[in-house]
């Protein structure tokens, strides 16, 4: 599970460099997220641009990644493909996360 | 080559009761598009999902509807790996896709632990109206499946479970 991390203007952007977050990848994803977010900025943006498929195990791993951040820290999402967006909408998890169109939109100045 | 639909037990003509599954099978013309066996592991599920998506796309399913089938099949197969074979790779799962004129009929068969109560879960939506510390990390599977299929049927006979999911064929445009 390849994830890359950069910090821009106090926000940590983690890009998923995989096409799938599925049952075969969920545990690795959660573990890598824990490593990358052990300390650092209070706000994290998960960039899902390269992800074309997610199942409920992958969704659960993203929720777990948010929960393991602990209080006072926040996980937002950006660049959801239609297939990924569908899973968040059907399960109503789109109401839980801040969702942005792109990394630029997620990290840009608040309008 | 193609898996036989015949299951252990009395031949179908001795079972005139015609249950819902038989009706469903009868509704699906026997045009088999894919018939595969896989090991009960997440990696094998991933491989077979690629073949399922490829198969329905080649039969004219548009990309969005192809993803719907792949997603429902992912949830159904992950459940079998997790709950019927308890995350050991020792089970064999049989997947068969047939196409009627405009309906894909997908059968998943295995001899692992059957569904609790011998019936399909209701598939209620998970409750997301809670503190983030208490948000559910699972339990979405059957809700997603029911959101994506035309219908779903389950039978358990002679130690074999069969789940049949049906999807409308939705070509481009």
UniProtKB/TrEMBL annotation, chain A:
InterPro entries: Anti-sigma_ant, STAS_dom, STAS_dom_sf. It comes from the Bacteria. This is Anti-sigma factor antagonist. SUPFAM superfamilies: SpoIIaa-like. Pfam families: STAS (PF01740). GO terms for molecular function: anti-sigma factor antagonist activity. Belongs to the anti-sigma-factor antagonist family. Residues 21-110 form the STAS domain. PANTHER family: ANTI-SIGMA FACTOR ANTAGONIST TM_1081-RELATED (PTHR33495:SF2), ANTI-SIGMA FACTOR ANTAGONIST TM_1081-RELATED-RELATED (PTHR33495).
From TrEMBL, chain B:
Keywords: Kinase, Serine/threonine-protein kinase, Transferase. InterPro entries: Anti-sigma-factor_SerPK (IPR050267), HATPase_C_sf (IPR036890), HATPase_dom (IPR003594). CDD domains: HATPase_RsbW-like (cd16936). GO terms for molecular function: protein serine/threonine kinase activity. Pfam families: HATPase_c_2 (PF13581). Transmembrane segments: none annotated. SUPFAM superfamilies: ATPase domain of HSP90 chaperone/DNA topoisomerase II/histidine kinase (SSF55874). Residues 39-166 form the Histidine kinase/HSP90-like ATPase domain. This is Serine/threonine-protein kinase RsbW.
């Amino acid at each position: 599970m390849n994830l890359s991390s950069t910090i821009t203007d106090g926000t940590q952007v983690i890009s998923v460099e995989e096409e799938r977050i599925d049952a075969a990848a969920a545990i690795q994803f959660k573990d890598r997220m824990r490593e990358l977010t052990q300390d650092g900025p209070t706000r994290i943006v998960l960039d899902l641009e390269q992800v074309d498929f997610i199942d409920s195990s992958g969704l659960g791993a993203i929720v777990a990644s948010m929960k393991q951040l602990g209080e006072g820290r926040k996980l937002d999402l950006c660049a959801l493909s239609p297939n990924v967006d569908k899973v968040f909408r059907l399960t109503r998890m789109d109401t839980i996360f801040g969702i942005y169109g792109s990394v630029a939109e997620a990290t840009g100045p608040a309008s | 080559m193609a898996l036989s639909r015949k299951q252990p037990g009395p031949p179908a003509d001795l079972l005139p009761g015609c249950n819902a599954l038989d009706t469903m099978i009868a509704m699906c013309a026997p045009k088999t598009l894919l018939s595969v066996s896989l090991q009960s592991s997440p990696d094998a599920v991933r491989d077979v999902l690629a073949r399922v998506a490829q198969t329905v796309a080649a039969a004219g399913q548009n990309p969005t509807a192809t993803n719907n089938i792949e997603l429902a099949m992912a949830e159904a197969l992950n459940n079998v790996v997790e709950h019927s074979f308890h995350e050991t790779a020792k089970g064999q799962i049989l997947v068969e896709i047939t196409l009627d004129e405009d309906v894909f009929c997908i059968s998943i068969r295995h001899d692992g632990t059957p569904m609790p109560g011998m019936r399909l879960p209701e598939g209620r939506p998970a409750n997301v109206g809670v503190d983030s510390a208490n948000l559910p990390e699972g339990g979405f599977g059957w809700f997603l499946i029911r959101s994506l299929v035309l219908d779903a049927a389950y039978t358990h006979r002679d130690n074999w479970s069969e789940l049949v999911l049906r999807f409308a064929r939705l070509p481009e445009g």
